[in-house]
Amino acid sequence: MAAQHDPAAQPDLVGMVGTGNMGGRITRRMVAAGHDVLAVDAEPARIPACGAAPAKDLAELAERCDVIMLSLPDSPVIESVIRNPGGLLAHARDGQVIVDLSTANPASTRALHDELQGRGVRYLDAGISGGAAGAENGTLTLMVGGDETALARVRPLLDTFSAHVHHMGGSGAGHVTKVLNNFLNGVTLAATAEVMVAGKKAGLDLARLLEVLNTSTGVSFASLNRFPHIIKGDYLEGGLTGRLMAKDVRLYLDLAGDLGVVTLTGPGTLTAFQVSNALGYGDQISNRVVDALGDLAGGVRVSEQDSEQEER
User: Fold this and answer.
1) Catalytic site residue 247?
2) Mean pLDDT, contiguous 10-residue spans, the chain (312 residues)
């Protein structure tokens, strides 16, 4: 039987598991909006930096917070936080809502949803898009799967760090949408990086090339929002790493396989990031795939600053 609601819980106290690159920024947005946040992180020193108070453990988080958010790297970590002894499932209370902001395997998400539902907990999978800048500015897009009533309940919290919230359907629908979105993100990033390297080797002015692409059919988020900065030497550090991008592309390949969808672009996109990671860029922002492709093309750098240093 699900545990009853704890009258000692503080409705205005929000729980957060994971205060890293995205979770930390999201936490700062909630704190700035007047919410008290109690957090758990594998690196506890990150917690005070985003304005949250540290919880002793997951048990305390579950006991004191009616709403708990997760911002974690992948499904195995999410599963351990929920299922391990002392995890959220063991201390779940009837009426709690858990919002998973991670990029995760939809099949794992649905299994966790069913387990938590048996304890009276509503589990929302809320994929996010917009990167570090979107989290910093409170302009993220959220794609949510799960109970619509639970979503309405936590909507005021989500509005502190998002500009668009879309209910995509039942459990797992949010993470399916997120996997599809991130795959397209990876495809266009890798393809645009390749074009930038080719354009540089062909002797084109890359700023002018981007002007053409961005008013033509080759336009993408990468050409509009990433490469105008990258060619000036700003790789927009702080966003999704190459290693996590490869993980997201693998999630798409798994999903496509489960759905019986043939993917021709998936393997090549995964290879681009696997090679980039193998060349040492895995823990840097995924935009560095352009440097990996440049390495393979003979040491090409699309950044104006790097080009000037090479000339000197």
Assistant:
1) no
2) 43 90 96 97 95 97 97 97 96 96 97 97 97 93 98 97 98 98 98 98 98 98 97 92 97 97 98 98 97 98 71 50
User: Which two three-digit tokens encode residue 215?
Assistant: 């008013």
What single string gives the DSSP state of each residue in the chain?
-PPPP-TTSEEEEEEEE--SHHHHHHHHHHHHTT-EEEEE-SSTTHHHHTTPEEPSSHHHHHHHEEEEEE--SSHHHHHHHHHSTTSTTTT--TT-EEEE-S---HHHHHHHHHHHHTTT-EEEEEEEESHHHHHHHT-EEEEEES-HHHHHHHHHHHTTTEEEEEEEESTTHHHHHHHHHHHHHHHHHHHHHHHHHHHHHTT--HHHHHHHHTTSTT--HIIIIIHHHHTTT---TTS-BHHHHHHHHHHHHHHHHHHT---SSHHHHHHHHHHHIIIIITTSBGGGHHHHHHHHTTS----HHHHHHHH-
- Which residue, among 182, 147, 146, 142, has the nearest Cα to 160 in the 3D structure? 142
Cα–Cα distance between 129 and 101 in angstroms, integer?
10
Please tell me which residue in 178, 201, 232, 247 is annotated as part of the active site: 178
d(CA 288, CA 272): 11
Q: What is the pTM for the complete model shown? A: 0.91
